[in-house]
Amino acid sequence: MNASHCANNTRQPAPTNSLRARRLGVDTQYEAIVFMRKDCPVCRSEGFTAHTRILLRAGGREIIATLYQITGDLISHEEAALSEAAWQRLGLRDGDRITVKHSPPLDSLRAVRRRIYGNSLERASFQSIVRDVVDGRYSDLHLASFITACSARPLERAEILALTQAMVNVGDRLKWDANLVVDKHCVGGLPGNRTTPIVVAIVASLGLTMPKTSSRAITSPAGTADVMETIAPIDLDADAIRRVVEQEGGCVVWGGAVRLSPADDILIRVERALDLDAEGQLIASVLSKKIAAGATHLVLDIPVGATAKVRGREAAENLAKGLLSVAEHFGLKAQVVLSDGSQPVGKGVGPALEARDVLAVLRCNAEAPPDLRRRAITLAGAVLELAAASPPGQGEVLATKALDDGRAWAKFQRICDAQGGMRTPPSSKHRRPLLAPRSGWLGVIDNRRIARLAKLAGAPDAKAAGVELHAKLGDVVVAGQPLCTVHAEAPGELAYALEYAVANPDILVVEDQ
Amino acid sequence: MNASHCANNTRQPAPTNSLRARRLGVDTQYEAIVFMRKDCPVCRSEGFTAHTRILLRAGGREIIATLYQITGDLISHEEAALSEAAWQRLGLRDGDRITVKHSPPLDSLRAVRRRIYGNSLERASFQSIVRDVVDGRYSDLHLASFITACSARPLERAEILALTQAMVNVGDRLKWDANLVVDKHCVGGLPGNRTTPIVVAIVASLGLTMPKTSSRAITSPAGTADVMETIAPIDLDADAIRRVVEQEGGCVVWGGAVRLSPADDILIRVERALDLDAEGQLIASVLSKKIAAGATHLVLDIPVGATAKVRGREAAENLAKGLLSVAEHFGLKAQVVLSDGSQPVGKGVGPALEARDVLAVLRCNAEAPPDLRRRAITLAGAVLELAAASPPGQGEVLATKALDDGRAWAKFQRICDAQGGMRTPPSSKHRRPLLAPRSGWLGVIDNRRIARLAKLAGAPDAKAAGVELHAKLGDVVVAGQPLCTVHAEAPGELAYALEYAVANPDILVVEDQ
């Protein structure tokens, strides 16, 4: 039947649905939220109810927001109050008018449901899902459902390729003059494993191009971006990054600022809240950023250990296979280095504490953590060899030389200057040591719970917060000696962390000699 | 090691973390939300960041809420503003003080992650998940993730049993004096299939005990509770229900008011927003309510049709098997009736429109929809036979008699009076017919899109809204004749529904003769 006859003849004037926008100053992260009076003319004529998704329009832009209805006098009948995410996405100024209407059903949510019910998704579905995610059309409920669906039934190879491509497509892509652009990435979960700034400094000092874009922490107490931010500005736009890299051959910046795979940042927040990090999404997350960043050669570090993210050799090899296969599909030459993941790397866990370790290695200080230095040299060596910038088997020799003769340190300082100026990592205001309860040797350091301890102490948001380790596995300790120190910026956070330490006396275990 | 040494020696006084509670009047449905100034002393000393889950305490009660940080002047530094759900759960009065701290990690979320990653969950896990859900400890993200996890890898039989039991355990249970308590339930998705009030009236008039607790709509334009609410009060507490049932032998009330399987109401809201309704959750949802309501004999109606919820005979038989097997485990005698699901039942789709059909059948009006009458008699007959209240094969005869001689109608009126007084279903203010574009016979009525049309028109929240059908499958129609009428309470909703009808000209298809 042709229903257009009736609809077109409608004589009822459509309600204007126009409200005055008000900035409420509510930080809801990515989710756009609009607050409207339950009894405002628009709610009444439109019949909106709580948790409705509605379409907001202003000055040619439109977004979908979740409606929270207000019953009190917080806002007037003519107002619509917006969360920061909604306000900024619409580009509003106070007093601007917005129009509101029901949100049309999102086609891509049908694809999400298809996947939940056991179907694989094709390219076009991932493209429309990722597009809708980046455009802010998914509520937190939808994001959680999509992420869970991709974790509960692992993504197939074709799906990972499609998701990776979609994540690249919706963001910016960096192009470099150099034909050969190297990158490195560490896959998850080893506290203090902060090799990136050192590797960049070494390989850039040897003439390679390494424009490193890093993430903030997902579920860890610090990401490379969090650490680097305590040493130099990292929030550079694409032009600024280009300038730094043209001048110095390398950089260590935050990837989010240049919209490389912007979907990743949204998905990661929700993965973090759900503590989910499935392999397919991990591969798409890692590689979409590298592809968008214009890398041609990539070294991947996978730490393996009982309390690391990847717990066994078999799991590591599977993940490596997945990463290499997807990288190859996108024309990215990649190599995986499996490394020791049995304990944290360096001394510090937390942004500023890890930054101090990085600086000590680059300066070749006597107290520099030897394990961090060792790992940085291994990875820099692998990068040099993968990029054919050293003869096979000579990468580490070259890297060690660049580090020891000060070339890497000089390069690092120039990179920091180019990024906006070097600064000193902050120091914590509140500290407390955890003491060895008896003499013996240090038998266990639980990576996950060390990370949790550092997070309870405030990391990564509190930059100076975290855990400073004073002993390594196998070290002989005497009763009463500090095994580590908890650093915090606020007394409440120090108290939480210590409460956790009390409840978990086996984070660090001293065994009998 | 024993870290208690350090923690116990802490000399730092813990921050008081006390704020003045303010009722913000924000309806966020089940999710508890707290708004605090980003720069308030508590946020600063505790290091809370956006989307943190925090523990609120007041007067011996505690809840977990999602923190939204406020950057403007909406609230003062000494205040914490709460959503309605948070406010009510803490039982606050304006000016009360609350204390806030970081929420400890929820153990049950580990179980949710285990299920996402492919493990089955045992009894204790479902118990703790459902307990945390009912106590409001899950954010919307967590709820969406749990529901998706149970949809993406279907719940196993043991899991369905455990979930059902857990859902019964966390709520109230009704006990009846009668040894034999009958119930019926229709499984999903056939617009207008509102047999329940008629079946209750018939079997109660014949002396059976049928204390019917119904749900509101999940994804449909009306649930039985929504329909019944337009005829009589349905929001009765356990004592009131008992009084009605003792007096009349039957009732038709909303289940949510008596906390029968209260987890179901929370999960259903999220399932609705995600448009998910997987079999295992469906079985647990249906049967937990029946078990908690004290039913001993249960007839289940499963409509089967191309655009019904259950699309084919095989799917229906699988679902029937699942329902019967779980019912049996809990000592519930159940029977399934597979019914025709090819088109809507009766004329009306939407709360008040369906109520009119129900009343017409009970009053034996000439214009009563014969299909609704037929189905109600079939189901009442099945209930009578299952409960051995009629000889085998004689249930329908008995049911027809009670309907035709006015006993059922008299009983229904007495039930409505006992529930608080009968009322007249409201009429819509805005209507528009959809006309047959040409002559022929009605070949297709798309259940799902009829339901969507009724929802866009405002059902179930707008009680008078919905779709009124003027023709059945196979009816001969002439060009320009109204096939159905869209009813709405607001012009905006009428416009949306008509817009949808224009975009979907094949909701009702007229075929050549």
Please give the number of β-strands of chain A. Answer: 19
- CATH architectural grouping of the largest domain in chain A: 3-Layer(aba) Sandwich
CATH class of the largest domain in chain A: Alpha Beta
Assembly type of the chains comes to homodimer
* Main structural class of chain A: alpha/beta
Spatial arrangement of strands, main beta sheet of chain A: 1-6-3-5-4-7
Per DSSP, what share of the residues of chain A sits in E-state strands of 2 or more residues? 15-25%
Mean pLDDT of chain A: 90
Query: Given the C-alpha coordinates, what overall shape of chain A results?
Result: globular
CATH superfamily of the largest domain in chain A: Nucleoside phosphorylase/phosphoribosyltransferase catalytic domain
Radius of gyration of chain A over all CA atoms, rounded: 25 Å
Low-confidence segments of chain A, given as residue ranges, are: 1-15
Largest interface: A-B, 100 and 100 residues
Helix content class of chain A = 40-55%
CATH names the topology of the largest domain in chain A as Pyrimidine Nucleoside Phosphorylase, Chain A, domain 2
Number of helices of chain A: 19
Taking the sheet with the most strands of chain A, its summary is: 6 strands, mixed, barrel
The count of domains of chain A is 4
N- to C-terminal distance of chain A: 87 Å
What does this structure look like?
Chains A, B: It is an enzyme of class 2 (transferase). Chains A, B: It comes from Methylocystis echinoides. Chains A, B: InterPro entries: Glycosyl_Trfase_fam3, Glycosyl_Trfase_fam3_N_dom, Glycosyl_Trfase_fam3_N_dom_sf, Nuc_phospho_transferase, PYNP-like_C_sf, PYNP_C, Pyrmidine_PPase_CS, Thym_Pase_Put. The structure is a homodimer of 513-residue chains. Chain A is of the alpha/beta class and 513 residues long. Chain A has 4 domains: 14-102, Beta Barrel (Barwin-like endoglucanases), CATH 2.40.40.20; 107-169, Transferase, Pyrimidine Nucleoside Phosphorylase, Chain C (Transferase, Pyrimidine Nucleoside Phosphorylase, Chain A, domain 3), CATH 1.20.970.10; 182-258 and 280-419, Pyrimidine Nucleoside Phosphorylase, Chain A, domain 2 (3-Layer(aba) Sandwich); 430-511, Pyrimidine nucleoside phosphorylase-like, C-terminal domain (Aldehyde Oxidoreductase, domain 3, Alpha-Beta Complex). The first copy, chain A, has helices spanning 4-8, 41-46, 84-90, 107-116, 123-134, 140-152, 157-169, 196-205, 224-229, 238-248, 262-274, 279-292, 313-329, 351-362, 370-386, 395-404, 407-419, 447-456, 491-503, and strands at residues 18-23, 26-27, 33-37, 53-58, 61-70, 79-82, 97-102, 182-186, 210-214, 250-254, 297-304, 333-340, 348-349, 430-435, 440-445, 466-469, 476-477, 482-488, 508-511. In chain A, strand 4 and strand 5 (61-70) form a beta hairpin. Mean pLDDT of chain A is 90; it is low at 1-15. At the A-B interface, helix 1, strand 2, helix 2, strand 5 and helix 4 of A face helix 1, strand 2, helix 2, strand 5 and helix 4 of B.
